[in-house]
Automatic annotation (TrEMBL):
This is prolyl aminopeptidase. Keywords: Aminopeptidase, Cytoplasm, Hydrolase, Protease. PANTHER family: PROLINE IMINOPEPTIDASE. Its EC number is 3.4.11.5. The keyword Lipid biosynthesis does not apply. InterPro entries: AB_hydrolase_1 (IPR000073), AB_hydrolase_fold (IPR029058), Peptidase_S33 (IPR002410), Pro_iminopeptidase (IPR005944).
């Protein structure tokens, strides 16, 4: 039994290397941690997985998704690396996990992730069900137009003066970009066009656009007021994260919503194809989640049950983050439940 932490770079081709870290019991239950964003990385989670998984019992694999964190080339190192990932897809990202699974000689693993990690984790499980021991996801995002509109259009914020002001600061920059490009006036409820304008600015390295994009969503998610960011004042220490998150969110959300729409809801039936039966699924959702509203998680749970996928759901009075008290406790309960389910 080995419990040492190991870090590695794995070449997935086309000049791209993925950084990953393993820790825990090398003969224990394997876990794939799928981080969120997209554009965040393992380091952004401050070692929270060590609070979920007993290192004597589990073997945890944490991967910086392509282009993020310590993976190379990293968008955190500058917008010059963005063109390398202009064609990035969720299909490539799931295939990256498969390559690392094979490299490590793991036959099956528990898939564990939240936010964008729920999107990519669910996609992976639907496409590689025989490789999954189970699926635990929180802060559900299915990359649909309705979810896109819930964050990137004005209407959802009209009843909340503070949130509306934050949205208007976000909208202002895209509106100005449309005017300066002599384009048609931007409708504040045209979410697709707004994010396409932002992507245009992000790709040319516009610091204001990169920062405002990142801050707008960060402040919807953040529950600790001391960690709220100012949209008109760039924090240099946080800017590399802003580079990565703004680029990958704009690119992958536009691709998965409009260009090559994902069918995650329809494809939950694929979870029936696990090695010993359907992939048991646990869903955790904060009812106060502003960036991933709980109605979409409820729709997913309904669909899972409709397809007879064994499902346990926890809707808790909490926000978006894994560290949010109610979410944290529910995730602990899911892991305990998985352990009983797996070892029975």
């Amino acid at each position: 039994m080995s419990s040492e932490t190991k870090e590695s770079l794995f070449d997935v081709g086309n000049g791209i290397k993925l950084w990953y870290r393993t820790w825990g019991n090398s003969t224990g239950i394997p876990v794939l941690f799928v981080h969120g964003g997209p554009g965040n990385c393992v380091a952004d989670y401050d070692g929270i997985n060590e609070k979920f998984f007993n290192k004597e019992q589990y073997f945890v694999v944490e991967i910086d998704q392509r282009g993020t964190g310590n993976s190379l080339p990293s968008v955190r190192d500058g917008h010059k690396n963005m063109p390398m990932y202009k064609d990035i897809s969720i299909t490539q990202m799931a295939a990256d996990f498969e390559k690392i699974r094979q490299e490590l000689g793991i036959s099956q693993w528990l898939v564990f992730g939240g936010s964008w990690g729920s999107t990519l984790g669910l996609y992976y499980a639907e496409n590689y069900p025989s490789k999954c021991l189970g699926l635990i996801i929180r802060g559900i995002f299915l990359n649909t137009k309705d979810e896109f509109d819930a964050v990137y259009s004005q209407k959802p914020f009209e009843a909340d003066a503070k949130r509306l002001a934050e949205f208007n600061t976000f909208f202002e920059l895209a509106s100005n970009e449309a005017k300066n490009s002599q384009e048609q006036t931007l409708d504040p409820n045209d979410s697709e066009r707004m994010i396409r304008l932002y992507e245009k600015m992000i790709l040319r390295g516009d610091r204001d656009a990169i920062w405002r994009f990142y801050v707008f969503e960060n402040n919807l998610v953040e529950e600790d007021e001391s960690k709220l960011l100012y949209p008109l004042k760039v924090s240099e220490g946080e800017f590399p994260t802003a580079l990565s998150v703004s680029f990958f969110e704009a690119r992958l959300f536009l691709r998965g919503t409009f260009e090559h729409p994902l069918t995650l809801m329809e494809d939950v039936k694929k979870l029936k194809e696990g090695t010993t039966g359907p992939v048991k699924t646990w869903v955790v959702q904060g009812t106060g989640d502003e960036v991933c509203p709980d109605r979409f998680a409820r729709d997913l749970v309904d669909q899972l049950k409709k397809e007879s996928i064994p499902t346990t759901s926890h809707f808790v009075d909490a926000g978006h983050k894994a560290s949010s008290d109610g979410v944290f406790k529910a995730l602990q309960d899911c892991i305990k439940d998985f352990n009983e389910y797996y070892t029975k």
